[in-house]
């Protein structure tokens, strides 16, 4: 049975606001988060991080740290399997498991090998009887650096004779392979005759916007607990938005089959996209094995979170928009240079698509650059890439409206994308509801209320801004089990970062015609629940129950 959400009938469950299934545990403190995991014989791990943004590692001496009382093991990049005399063919076979990633670079981000590429880049890690002992032991690790000139922003990265961050990088510049560069990728979306269109405009405004990296600021820092046991099996607990990604990535980094790795779910104290990456689990795993199969816990402090995990990219966005007196946008040109951090892979693909998606513009050109700088490798953050470009585009549109004395909503309505409009990358929109949203905003009490100007010491105003996101995400599964007492056990294959246990339970309750309180959701470990999309793969596993599958889809 499928729920038809377009129907006008009244639902009995959907639309209500039940007590969340995880609510009592969270408000009473019973909920288990990553840092709460405790195992018998647990020891602590700590990371030594680089004090330099760019430097060669000439030598690492761990002998003093290894002899420190209470220390069980010390590791460097040499302890990561793919760095331990593995031949090229073996590395290529490992890489096939994760075709959308660069395995060597991702491992180097976890633990630096030849160079450190940002301040906070992990260099070594220690396991000890407690956290303070591990911290003190890290201070005994002697690292000799050859400090290099850092690249701090996109302007410095692309200037002539700039320091090269990755010497082996082959940049793709409009399909041409370029070496000795900090620009990992440059691509373009374009249609129409951009130059002719600008020449025929009555007003053209061009602005440049400089943006800084912005961190997600989740409440719970990154953490991991790992137990590599005597059966050569690895168990993991970590604060993550996807326990299957943790399993697959950690297995790949450590050259383990995924059947040898099990990730157990815990509550997650916020992520916003920043907890889709793996930082600590592989390190905790190697420390566990090297410490005699003792479980190891690692928790980033807040400074380490800021220095060593991925923020949203900063960079530079240039926006040029031309309009005619009939209130129509005729042409737009956007140039976006995003800071990828020390390794390629910023959100330029999404940013380029989102930049002008809100508006029907017959002539466009978007140039996007993925630029390396000596900062942490960037990660997702709430519609990655869209806020940066939207800020620039919407700022220019506001200035156009102010110069031409046009109403800001009416101007956006006159140029709004709708069904059949062509997106920046050429895709034609289906029904998107943007015009209806603008019309609702125009009729709203907020837009039509009077602005209170009684306080002369404050400036009051009203603004509007529009943005686009195409959404995304892998598939997951839901299993439904009818219990003897008539209740339903629901097993969900995705991490619950936004209340999905309750929302999917509501869909199931609506479908089956029972109260949502009769649904008992849980998130099993990665050995217990089916999963339909591996990291970079396309394997398919369907849910046990048809209603569960429909719930997962919707």
Q: Would you write up a description of this structure?
A:
The protein is α+β, with helices and mostly antiparallel strands and 554 residues long. It folds into three domains: 23-31 and 473-553, 2-Layer Sandwich (Aldehyde Oxidoreductase, domain 4); 35-148 and 221-308, Alpha-Beta Complex (Aldehyde Oxidoreductase, domain 3); 171-214 and 314-448, Aldehyde oxidase/xanthine dehydrogenase, molybdopterin binding domain (Aldehyde Oxidoreductase, domain 4, 2-Layer Sandwich). Helices cover 26% and strands 23% of the residues. The chain contains 17 helices and 20 strands. Strands 3-5-1-14-11-12-13 form a seven-stranded mixed β-sheet. A seven-stranded mixed β-sheet has the order 8-7-9-17-16-15-10. α11 (348-354) runs parallel beside α12 (386-404) and α16 crosses α17 (546-553). The relative contact order is 0.14. Residues 534-554 have low confidence and may be disordered.
Write the SSE topology.
Blueprint: H1 23-28, E1 43-49, E2 55-61, H2 63-67, E3 71-75, H3 88-96, H4 103-110, E4 115-116, E5 122-128, H5 131-138, E6 142-147, H6 154-158, E7 171-173, E8 176-178, E9 183-191, H7 194-199, E10 203-211, E11 223-228, E12 234-238, H8 243-253, E13 261-264, H9 281-290, E14 296-299, H10 302-308, E15 315-324, E16 328-341, H11 348-354, E17 363-372, H12 386-404, H13 408-414, H14 434-443, H15 445-448, E18 478-482, E19 488-492, H16 500-512, E20 519-522, H17 546-553
Parallel strand pairs: 1-14, 7-9, 12-13, 16-17, 19-20
Antiparallel strand pairs: 1-5, 2-4, 2-6, 3-5, 7-8, 9-17, 10-15, 11-12, 11-14, 15-16, 18-19
